[in-house]
Amino acid sequence: MKKLSFLLTFSLLLFTACAQKTTQKAETQSKEPEKTYYVMIETSYGNMTCKLYNETPQHRDNFLKLVREGFYNDLLFHRVINQFMIQGGDPDSRNAKPDQMLGAGGLDYRIPAEFNKKLFHKKGALAAARDGNPQKASSSCQFYIVQGNVWDGQRLMMLQQQMNKQLTPEAIEAYRTIGGTPHLDMDYTVFGEVVEGLEVIDKIAAVPTGKADRPIEDVKFKISIVEK
After folding, report:
1. 139 φ, ψ to 5°?
2. How far apart, in whole angstroms, are the C-alpha atoms of residue 48 and residue 76?
3. Residues 26, 141: Cα–Cα separation, whole Å
4. Alpha helices in the chain (DSSP H)
5. Local confidence pLDDT in tens for the 228 residues of the chain
6. For residue 118, what are the CA distances in angstroms to 124, 185, 214?
7. Of 91, 127, 97, 67, whose CA–CA distance to 218 is shortest?
8. What global pTM score does this model have?
9. SS3 143
10. DSSP code of 88?
11. Cβ distance 110 to 125 under 8 Å?
């Protein structure tokens, strides 16, 4: 009987140890970081490599889907404002006539806003355009890349008071060094950033423009996924 009791106790301890190892393994696997996705935007002015944020999964996944489908290939940066941003992604811009008004095109859905104070409109930020809908939901396909300006501390303080918003220390540091457009924070979803090719933004932002801020000479682009 004692021998049987010993065997039962030993079996119970062995089972408990195995269960703990299984739990620890599952916890380790669940804590593995999400894959970070990168895309390349190719233009005649140079290429930009962008990191997509995992903190904005709906925008990330929608953008990746469209890129995989080749949706963005041969579209235009149809709205360019120096010291502000460059905007593209309107499907109507493919093979658009020189005098054609652009900016109203899109797909038949919106993406819910995914605001995050940690993700802000520094130079190089990749963000979703939108119309004036009250939910501030994003366009299904149109996006912009921030150029902006460098801000001094006093101007940033005044802006925060005017907007009744509090910028994070990280955002303030970025706006004071590389620049950006802080007044757009928490109003438009930022879902990525340019990690290589910031100078390309400046080149495109400087092109001559005509009506509705459309470049006089078309600035075409295509986007592909970068495997890292």
Report:
1. -60, 150
2. 15
3. 37
4. 2-30, 57-68, 153-163, 169-177, 198-205
5. 444 454 445 454 555 555 565 555 555 455 678 899 999 999 999 999 999 999 999 999 999 999 999 999 999 999 999 999 999 999 999 999 998 999 999 999 999 999 999 999 999 999 999 999 999 999 999 999 999 999 999 999 999 999 998 999 999 999 999 999 999 999 999 999 999 999 999 999 999 999 999 999 999 999 999 987
6. 15, 10, 31
7. 97
8. 0.86
9. strand
10. E
11. no
Query: 143: which strand partners?
Result: 88, 128
Q: How far apart (Å, rounded) are the C-alpha atoms in residues 118 and 186?
A: 10
> Do 96 and 76 contact (CB within 8 A), yes or no?
yes
CB contact set of 194 (below 8 Å; sequence gap of 6+): 48, 49, 50, 124, 125, 126, 145, 201
For 118, phi then psi, to 5°, come to -75, -15
Q: d(Cα 169, Cα 152) in Å, to the nearest integer?
A: 14
- Spatial CA neighbour of 192 closest among 129, 145, 136: 145
User: What residues are paired with 38 via a beta bridge?
Assistant: 51, 226
Residue 225 near residue 39, CB atoms below 8 Å: yes
Structure tokens at 19: 């269960």
